UniProtKB/TrEMBL annotation:
Destroys radicals which are normally produced within the cells and which are toxic to biological systems. GO terms for molecular function: copper ion binding. It is found in: Cytoplasm. Belongs to the CCS1 family. This is Superoxide dismutase 1 copper chaperone. PROSITE patterns: HMA_2 (PS50846). Residues 6-69 form the HMA domain. Keywords: Cytoplasm, Disulfide bond, Metal-binding. It comes from Ceratocystis fimbriata CBS 114723. The gene is CCS1. CDD domains: HMA.
Length: 252
């Protein structure tokens, strides 16, 4: 889907020379819809402006043999993120891993207020069966019972045929991956604390936890220049050490 709202996104990218800067910049420009790329070798950062999805920009950078970490999008208080996890019942019977997590990360949704009337949503999913899925915002952000405690689609009581919480359908291919990039007439502050769900199940009954239904709670994320942390104060790990941990958990 074509997005008309241009957004600014800042990435941390390991670069060692001007050839790195050129390679990264050219790969991003090849996406189309990019109006500006400012790669700063000294600060190891790349600022991108345009209508391409942040997830597509990460993939373009990774295609050059480098990794990328999204550091911020849009203005302060205008961005949000949702980590989508599987709450399948079978997971509770498996041994608890070292980090104490039983849930499997299956996707990520990034949201940026592109304008006063449009919220840009970049959603990616992996590790689920092929098929057509529905992405929705739910009434509640209660994950005590996984997806089953998130309630109905947000706004379905007022308008069951076109609830405000319906985001999009998402086609997952044979590799188990899918993505959608859309803008919706929403405000980011309205969604904070609500759950987002991606599922193949119908809405005629309470949703059940299964391997192909993922859910997470929407939380605020950093805007441009809001996040200058290079070392985590909790773990003492560097930015890139944390990135390795995230990849192991499924946050691609």
């Amino acid at each position: 889907m074509t997005i008309s709202e241009s957004i600014q996104t800042l990435f941390a990218v390991p670069m060692v020379c001007e050839a790195c800067v050129k390679s990264v910049s050219e790969s991003i420009y090849n996406l189309g819809g990019i109006t500006n790329v400012d790669a700063n070798l000294k600060d190891q950062q790349v600022l991108v402006e345009g209508t391409a999805a942040p997830s597509a920009i990460v993939s373009a950078i990774q295609a050059t043999g480098r990794d990328a970490i999204l550091r911020g999008s849009g203005a302060s208080d205008s961005a949000a993120v949702c980590i989508l996890e599987s709450f399948e019942t079978e997971a509770a019977t498996q041994p608890v891993p070292e980090d104490g997590r039983r849930r499997e990360v299956r996707g990520l949704a990034r949201m940026v207020q592109g304008s006063s009337s449009a919220l840009v949503i970049d959603l990616t999913i992996h590790g689920v069966e092929p098929g057509l899925y529905r992405a929705t915002i739910r009434e509640y952000g209660d994950l005590e019972a996984g997806v089953s405690s998130t309630g109905l689609v947000w706004g379905s009581k007022e308008n069951p045929d076109a609830p405000r919480g319906f985001i999009s359908t998402v086609t997952v291919d044979e590799s188990g991956k899918g993505a959608v990039y859309v803008d919706k007439p929403l405000q980011v502050w309205e969604l904070i604390g609500h759950a987002m769900v991606l599922t193949r199940q119908g809405e005629e009954k309470v949703l059940e936890n299964d391997a192909n239904t993922v859910v997470g709670v929407i939380a605020r994320s950093a805007g441009m220049w809001d996040n200058d942390k290079m070392v985590c104060s909790c773990t003492g790990k560097t930015l890139w050490e944390e990135r390795k941990d995230e990849v192991k958990k499924g946050m691609l």
